[in-house]
Amino acid sequence: MNLGVLGAGRMGSAVARAVGETGETVAVCSARPGSGPARGLPAACVAATLDEIWRGCHTVLLAVPFPVAMALVTGPAGRCGDGRTLIDATNPGLCRDRPLPPGISGGELIAEAASAWHVAKAFNTVAADGVPADGPLGVPVSLPVAGAPHAKLDAFALARRLGFEPVDAGDIQASRELESFAVLLARISATSGLHGGIGLSTHRAVPDAVR
Ligand SMILES: NC(=O)c1ccc[n+]([C@@H]2O[C@H](COP(=O)([O-])OP(=O)(O)OC[C@H]3O[C@@H](n4cnc5c(N)ncnc54)[C@H](OP(=O)(O)O)[C@@H]3O)[C@@H](O)[C@H]2O)c1
After folding, report:
1. Does the pLDDT at position 169 exceed 80?
2. DSSP state string for 135-187
3. What is the mean pLDDT of the chain?
4. Could you tell me the distance, in angstroms and rounded to a whole number, from the CA of residue 43 to the centre of ligand 1?
5. InterPro entries attached here (predicted)?
6. Domains by residue range for the chain, with CATH
7. Whose CA is nearest to atom 45 of ligand 1?
């Protein structure tokens, strides 16, 4: 199966639903023992076990709280990637758990632990409610992607498929900025009364002649 989604909460369901609605089969797992995938997903979203997703999917999206993702990839799952793609959508700074110390990011820790995977940090700067991207007045919503080159290609493809404009943010160390940026977006969203409906749009802000 092409895409596997770990986490059937707001983010995982939004991505699974959007891909499933195109007719492509998506494997979905809630990651918490005993709970099934979210209700109301299209038929193309198939309930899978953790093991089926880790071993059978070309691309796996981590859409669980950061500590849960970290616990998963620190185990055997982190060593079974065979060079497949792991997309980390987590935001340690926004989780209820203890934030990470300065100078390190969740994306880097995930990449270090999931050493058998190509890891990309992506989808952490977009709101679940904004998946798929359907920007007002046709304004494209940019989706920064950082990480290993091979994984970035897969993350770019998934982002485009969901209507986003992927932008290259560099290597996995850029997860530090992407995770901080997600916190900043949440703060601006709160102070601006946007209720999470906030997104990044990348465009030239200075006329060509000024460059
Ligand atoms: N929501 C957003 O707009 C958004 C945007 C960008 C990034 N993210 C990131 O995406 C990730 C998921 O966020 P979310 O909003 O989708 O969260 P959520 O709605 O709370 O869903 C979390 C998912 O993780 C599972 N889970 C929770 N605790 C678990 C545990 N101890 N063991 C195993 N599985 C567990 C939940 O399982 P159950 O269904 O059994 O509870 C659920 O499927 C987070 O890292 C978040 O920072 C979210």
Report:
1. yes
2. -GGGPPPEEEEEE-HHHHHHHHHHHHHTT-EEEEEESGGGHHHHHHHHHHHHH
3. 92
4. 22
5. NAD(P)-bd_dom_sf (IPR036291), P5C_Rdtase_cat_N (IPR028939)
6. 3-210 (3.40.50.720)
7. 90
